[in-house]
Amino acid sequence: MSKVCVFDHPLIQHKLSILRDKGTSVKEFRELISEIAMLMCYEATRDLPLEDVEIETPVAKATVKRIAGKKLAIVPILRAGLGMVDGMVSMMPNVKVGHIGLFRDPETLEPVKYYFKMPPDIEERDVIVVDPMLATGGSASAAIQFLKDDGVKHIKLMCIIGAPEGVERMQKDHPDVDIYVAALDDHLNEHGYIVPGLGDAGDRIFGTK
Ligand code: PRP
Ligand code: URA
């Protein structure tokens, strides 16, 4: 069974409280999504392997730790996942980025795929799939299945807000994928929105409503 980590760090929780507020502007919303993703990235990469490297400081020779050449990729689920990319790239400037375009059919709530572009060696990389919202879990589950079909073996899912329904779906479909969220909310409403949530993440990032 996969692990579910809720990042309850005060900085993340404070920023999330502003993100949820319906009065928050598009500019501030974008900045907050990016900052929260950066802070979550810091925690979600805690298990990256380190190796010893010999260097010389201005004072003496020293053995120091560096990340051990782990091949990573971030895969945002379009559109809203794009809002999380900059914050993560600022922490990992050389990380490769793949894109999966999915939208949720408003009637059936089923994900519809419209774009898929990965780095050529994606099957050799550890992947962090990012999307601010894990609602029914349909989009995340489908995105992860596309990656597995492409040969990816190690996948983590990082969302800002998760619903219990989405976590349950993910654990059923992908018990090998650990889930990182900043908050686990109460439930989904009849339109598949997370309650209390933050509304439609894509619309709030791109100002489309
Ligand atoms: C939102 C969100 C997730 C999905 C979550 O995207 O960003 O991808 O819904 O819902 P689910 O867990 O029930 O699948 P949306 O379909 O609104 O597309 P957008 O990002 O282009 O706005
Ligand atoms: N997608 C969103 O953007 N928000 C929700 O609450 C659910 C799905």
Structural features, described:
With 209 residues, the protein is an alpha/beta fold. Helices cover 31% and strands 30% of the residues. It contains six helices and 15 strands. The protein has helices at 10-20, 26-44, 85-91, 138-149, 164-173, 201-206; strands spanning 4-6, 50-56, 61-67, 72-78, 96-97, 99-104, 111-117, 126-130, 133-134, 154-158, 161-162, 178-181, 183-184, 187-188, 194-195. Strands 1, 4, 5, 6, 7, 8, 10 and 12 form an eight-stranded mixed β-sheet that branches. A hairpin with a 5-residue loop joins strand 14 and strand 15 (194-195). The protein starts with a strand and ends with a helix. 1-O-pyrophosphono-5-O-phosphono-alpha-D-ribofuranose is lined by residues 77-80, 102-104, 109, 111, 131-140, 166, 192, 200-202.
Topology:
Blueprint: E1 4-6, H1 10-20, H2 26-44, E2 50-56, E3 61-67, E4 72-78, H3 85-91, E5 96-97, E6 99-104, E7 111-117, E8 126-130, E9 133-134, H4 138-149, E10 154-158, E11 161-162, H5 164-173, E12 178-181, E13 183-184, E14 187-188, E15 194-195, H6 201-206
Helix pairs in contact: 1-2, 2-3
Bound molecules: 1-O-pyrophosphono-5-O-phosphono-alpha-D-ribofuranose (PRP) and uracil (URA).
Residues 80, 133, 135, 192-194, 197, 200-202 line the site of uracil.
